[in-house]
Design a protein that fits this description.
single chain, about 280 residues, mainly alpha, Serine Threonine Protein Phosphatase 5, Tetratricopeptide repeat
C-alpha cells in the first residue's frame, strides 16, 4: 500500500512538471495566435511583426523570428534597431558568423547598446574568440547603469577564460558584495593560492549573512587548502557543534544534514593526515 501511494505521488509530481512546461508553451502559442489575428487586420503594422518575432524567440523558433523581423523591417517607417534581435536569433540557431555580422552592423549605429555588446560577447565566446569576447563583455558592463550580478559574473568568467584574472578580480571587487559575486572572487583567489585574501572575503560575507553554516563550511575548507590543519580541524569541529545545537526541524533539513556529513568526512580526513605526516 505504501509503495503504491509513493508511486502515485511520484506520478503526480511528474505530471505537474509536465503541465507547467506545457502551460508555458501554451501561453506563448496563445500569444502568437492573438498577434497573428491582429496582423490579419493590420498586415502592414511593423510593431506586430516585431512582437511576434520576440515571442518566436522565446519559443525557440529562430527561423520564424527572422522571418518576422524581415517583415517588420519591410513595413517599418523608421529604424527599429532589429539587428540586435536578429543577432540573438542567429545565435539561437548556432549561426555564429551571421550573428557577428548583424550585431556588428547594429553596434555601428547603436554603440551604446549594452545588451547588444553582451550578446556579441556570448557570440564571440562561442566562436572561441575569448580576448575579443572579454572586451565586449567589459564594454557591456561599462554601459549598464546598474549591472545585474549575473552580468558581472558572466563578464568575470569571460575575463578568466581570456587569462585576465587580475581584471576579473578588479571587476568583482568593484561590484556589490553579494554572495554570488564574493564566491566568484574566492574561486579566483584559490586558483592562485591566495588563501588569506579568500579568508578575508569569506569572513566579511559571514559577518553580514543570516544563515552562516554553509559559509563556515567553506571557510573551514579554505583553511584546509591553505595547509592550516589545526585551524581547519577547529573550524570543522566548531561547525559540527553548532549544527548539533540547531532546532530539530532545522538540524534535520537536507541542507544541514549534508553539512553535518561534510563535517564528519573532513574531520576524518584531517585526523588521518595527522597520523600520516
Amino acid at each position: 500500500m505504501g509503495n503504491s501511494r509513493s508511486l502515485v505521488l511520484i506520478l503526480i509530481s511528474v505530471m505537474r512538471f509536465a503541465t507547467a512546461d506545457s502551460c508555458a508553451h501554451d501561453s506563448t502559442d496563445v500569444a502568437i495566435a492573438r498577434i497573428t489575428s491582429e496582423i490579419s487586420k493590420e498586415p502592414e503594422e511593423a510593431r506586430l511583426y516585431l512582437d511576434r518575432a520576440s515571442l518566436h524567440l522565446e519559443h525557440g523558433d529562430w527561423k520564424a523570428s527572422l522571418a518576422d523581423l524581415d517583415r517588420a523591417d519591410h513595413f517599418a517607417k523608421s529604424d527599429l534597431g532589429l539587428d540586435r534581435m536578429r543577432g540573438r536569433a542567429f545565435a539561437l540557431g548556432g549561426k555564429w558568423k551571421d550573428a557577428v555580422r548583424v550585431l556588428d552592423a547594429h553596434l555601428k549605429s547603436h554603440p551604446s547598446d549594452a545588451t547588444a555588446w553582451a550578446e556579441m560577447a556570448h557570440v564571440r565566446e562561442a566562436l572561441g574568440q575569448l580576448t575579443i569576447a572579454a572586451e565586449d563583455g567589459q564594454r557591456a558592463i561599462q554601459l549598464m547603469p546598474h549591472p545585474e550580478p549575473d552580468a558581472i559574473v558572466e563578464c568575470a568568467d569571460l575575463l578568466r577564460k581570456a587569462d585576465r584574472d587580475d581584471e576579473a578580480i578588479t571587476l568583482l571587487d568593484r561590484a556589490p558584495h553579494l554572495p554570488v559575486i564574493v564566491d566568484r572572487a574566492i574561486t579566483i583567489d584559490l586558483a592562485h593560492a591566495h588563501h588569506d585574501s579568500a579568508l578575508r572575503r569569506i569572513d566579511a560575507l559571514i559577518a553580514v549573512t543570516k544563515v552562516q553554516e554553509p559559509l563556515l563550511a567553506k571557510r573551514a575548507s579554505i583553511l584546509a587548502q591553505a595547509g592550516r590543519r589545526d585551524d581547519a580541524i577547529s573550524a570543522w569541529s566548531n561547525l559540527s557543534e553548532r549544527l548539533g545545537k540547531l532546532p530539530p526541524e532545522t538540524r534535520q533539513s537536507q541542507a544541514m544534514l549534508t553539512l553535518a556529513s561534510q563535517c564528519d568526512q573532513a574531520l576524518d580526513a584531517l585526523q588521518q593526515t595527522s597520523h600520516h605526516p
